[in-house]
């Protein structure tokens, strides 16, 4: 019998469970951030780090092509306490820590809680943006650097394509996990089996399509997220002429029909999608960006919320404040970050079980 995390008592924890640290990658890829876009992205990173490092340690990976003194100078310009940051000068390809970083699982069956890393393959969303070899190697680097157990899954999976309530229920999309550019040799039941064996998924709610302009093919963290074990926040679009209206409405109907394992419906909250059409084009030629309030990040003591649109920003902050009253709520303007086709959740990855003192 093959030993898997699930058979060993492990499961993926919910994001709101206590972290050891957050993984971030300093922006450096000039294809993602051409010209002045790189400095604009750096400014958003500084906004995020300035808030986040007050609540939990930050492991900041800096590509070897970047002078580490440059990053240190930028941090000090904001009076950021670098003693709470852990800088590593290693090879990275881009900023998307959520998708290439280690996905942790937790075993709380014994006297002591144990964490392990599940190591999935990463191919930059179907080979869209090579090279990605350095980013693909990061879960193994974390396991070796911090002395953690590692389970090699043998399947392509990005962290932004799944969301869990920490009790075995997962959200995902068919447009990503069933896409032929990921795992063409696997059927839907086989993919479900991988999610069960390596992450402890006992119920999977499959949504359909993602946002226009989302080059990941439709990650769940731009669509719908768990706020607690039985409450799901999902993006909606009120304008029937909007390019995202049909997809978001279909996903909403799926969530309304979904049942908890006890037979009760989930509590579904809706939040209007901000404006996703931009002036000009992104680096890959899209006139749309995946701007979404669902791309928030739950850290220790704080929720980082991306802000994009004056019509709905306060609504997003209020909803998240109501559901995380024990945490501070920090809004971060993210128009310059999402131009690179990702936002706060996309660039962060929660880490567990690390001894970094």
What does this structure look like?
The chain has 357 residues and is α/β, with parallel strands linked by helices. It has a single domain (21-351), classed as L-arginine/glycine Amidinotransferase, Chain A (5-stranded Propeller), CATH 3.75.10. 27% of the residues lie in helices and 23% in strands. It has helices spanning 37-52, 68-77, 97-100, 124-127, 133-136, 138-146, 174-177, 188-199, 245-257, 313-323, 335-338, 344-347; strands at 21-25, 58-62, 85-89, 103-107, 114-121, 149-156, 163-164, 169-173, 203-207, 224-228, 231-236, 267-272, 297-299, 302-307, 328-333, 349-351. Strand 2, helix 2 (68-77) and strand 3 form a beta-alpha-beta unit.
Shape category: globular
Uncertain regions spanning at least 5 consecutive residues = none
Main sheet makeup: 4 strands, mixed
The first-to-last residue Cα distance is 38 Å
| Residues in β-strands, percent | 15-25%
CATH architecture: 5-stranded Propeller
Give the helix tally: 12
Mean pLDDT across all residues, rounded? 96
């Amino acid at each position: 019998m093959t030993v898997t995390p699930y058979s060993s008592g492990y499961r993926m924890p919910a994001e709101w469970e206590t972290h050891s640290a957050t993984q971030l990658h300093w922006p450096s890829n000039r294809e993602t951030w051409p010209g002045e876009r790189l400095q604009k992205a750096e400014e958003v990173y500084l906004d995020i780090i300035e808030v986040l490092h007050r609540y939990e340690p930050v492991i900041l990976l800096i590509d070897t092509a970047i002078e580490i003194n440059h990053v240190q100078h930028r941090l000090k310009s904001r009076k950021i306490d670098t003693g709470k940051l852990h800088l590593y000068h290693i090879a990275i390809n881009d900023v998307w820590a959520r998708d290439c970083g280690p996905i942790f699982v937790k075993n709380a069956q014994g006297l002591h809680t144990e964490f392990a890393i599940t190591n999935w393959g990463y191919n930059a969303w179907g080979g869209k943006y090579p090279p990605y070899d350095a980013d693909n190697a990061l879960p193994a680097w974390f396991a070796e650097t911090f002395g953690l157990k590692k389970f090699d899954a043998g399947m392509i999976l990005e962290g932004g394509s799944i969301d869990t309530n920490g009790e075995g229920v997962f959200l995902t999309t068919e447009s990503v996990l069933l896409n032929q550019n990921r795992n063409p040799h696997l059927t839907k039941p086989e993919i479900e089996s991988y999610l069960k064996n390596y992450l402890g998924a006992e119920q999977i709610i499959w949504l359909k399509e993602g946002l226009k302009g989302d080059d990941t093919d439709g990650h769940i963290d731009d669509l719908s997220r768990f706020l607690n074990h039985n409450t799901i926040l999902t993006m909606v679009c009120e304008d029937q002429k909007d390019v995202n209206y049909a997809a978001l409405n279909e996903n909403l109907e799926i969530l309304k029909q979904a049942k908890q394992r006890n037979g009760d419906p989930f509590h579904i909250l809706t939040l209007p999608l901000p404006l996703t059409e931009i002036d000009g084009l992104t680096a890959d030629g899209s006139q749309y960006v995946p701007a979404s309030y669902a791309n928030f990040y739950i850290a220790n003591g704080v929720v980082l919320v991306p802000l994009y649109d004056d019509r709905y920003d306060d609504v997003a902050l209020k909803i998240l404040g109501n559901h995380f009253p024990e945490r501070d709520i920090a809004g971060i303007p993210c128009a310059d970050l999402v131009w690179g086709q990702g936002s706060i959740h996309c660039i962060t990855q929660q880490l567990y079980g690390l001894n970094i003192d």
